Amino acid sequence: PELRFPERLNCATELLDRHVAEGRGGRVCIRAPGVTWTYADLQERANRIAHVLVREMGLVPGNRVLLRAPNNPMLAACWFAVMKAGGIAVATMPLLRAKELKAVLEIGQVTHALCDATLAEEMDLAARACPVLRQLRYFKQDGPDGLEAAMARMPGEFRNVETAADDTCILGFTSGTTGVPKATMHFHRDVMAICDCWPKYVLRPVADDVFIGSPPLAFTFGLGGLLLFPLRVGASVALLEKAGPPLLLEGIREFGATVLFTAPTSYRALAAHGAELRRTPLRKCVSAGEALPAATRALWKEATGIELIDGIGATEMLHIFISHDESNARPGATGKPVPGYRARVVDDAGREVPPGTIGKLAVQGPTGCRYLADPRQKTYVRDGWNLTGDAYLMDADGYFFYQARTDDMIVSSGYNIAAPEVEEALMQHPAVAECAVIGVPDADRGQIVKAFVVLRSGQARDEAMARALQDFVKATIAPYKYPRAVQFLDALPRTQTGKLQRFRLHEQE
Ligand code: 3UK
Q1: CA distances (Å), origin 268, targets 256, 284, 493
Q2: Is the CB of residue 160 below 6 angstroms from any atom belonging to ligand 1?
């Protein structure tokens, strides 16, 4: 890919203002229930908010701005306003509690905040506990103090700050399946780089596409898929505040969505509605955030006729760096490095291992590598390569196969067992809706494999079922990998980004 950027670059100019300047201001940009904004509408809102930030809230370039809302058009306008004013966007997951917000405010040294009034309760608590935060405005709030009233006092034009291509514009917080969240820094040129790598070579959207999906814009999977990528090509996006499978299905129908971004769990649930989905214009479906089991890929293809596009991305790298398009999907493989990126599998000393050998995934590209003042930089970045924390294997053809998070490899009687491989086998059993596998301490074997299983409705949670599942795994993969312990649950613990929280299952043990 051609990734040379001018010294002065503001991603808002490229992704938003350029369309209006080139005569596409009347095209639909963002939709939501009851709302349709053209590119010119979004630009005008972002301009007014940028003025509020600068004139009323005293923002200067380089200040960090907390953004907090469910996925809605105002959140998108606020994001672009921060870019225009040369600020740094720190978007937070809607469900964060005051304690977690306080950590984000302090780690990020956040001085300004724009927040959806529906999330005021925890925001107010965090703001009171955090002297570093100087200015806070709510939107969707009536009265003279609300952001909308302030916007009405401002002009609709704004001259974007001429930021440097390598000025930081995003602080992305890792979703934290374990431990304290880390902040990762991304530049204006990184935003453009992710738009010009994976979407250009793998997704290949067109201006008539309508994007939709579930990941929050606060998660870089959602920021790319549901804001940056549609705008890069002049397409439109439907933003849903709540996007559980039933509402997502409704949204796909209502807005005529053609490109869908969501996680494997959601594809499994939506697959039950294949007949309805076949009557929509849906044509491209992207799965990320968690490993995509081969069974889920097959289920989706069977239900909808659409080949899923899998891709591994990370907050550290901003977006997807290994993926495949519909023409080179291999069951069980995440794909090959996205043009612009290099990936390899290394041993503990950082040496590349031969094809077919399990090791640590290392990746390098136009994005990545920058933690904000975190000693873990030394652990996760070596010689310019990001270690993602994943165990992978590359085959002789250069396809990358996910094995597990490096800390989810189970060692039982000397055998290495990847938890996701056992999950994938269990998932092929018709009684299983969801499952999670961990290693639990065992006096004889060191660890044993334990499975937590959510059954489909109407299935009996008894000894006989547990035995049936154990036998099924033994018949599907190497028998020593079968779960010696099985426990039935109503639901699995997940993060707001849809990732399984295996550590919570460990805690319970
Ligand atoms: C796991 C996957 C197997 C993997 C993300 C797309 O998930 C994203 O970012 P996070 O920082 O987590 C990164 C970790 O999640 N993972 C993600 N995708 C896959 N594992 N197959 C996949 N397809 O452990 C990785 O290290 O929350 C995903 C785009 C942007 C993102 N930030």
Answers
A1: 21, 16, 17
A2: no
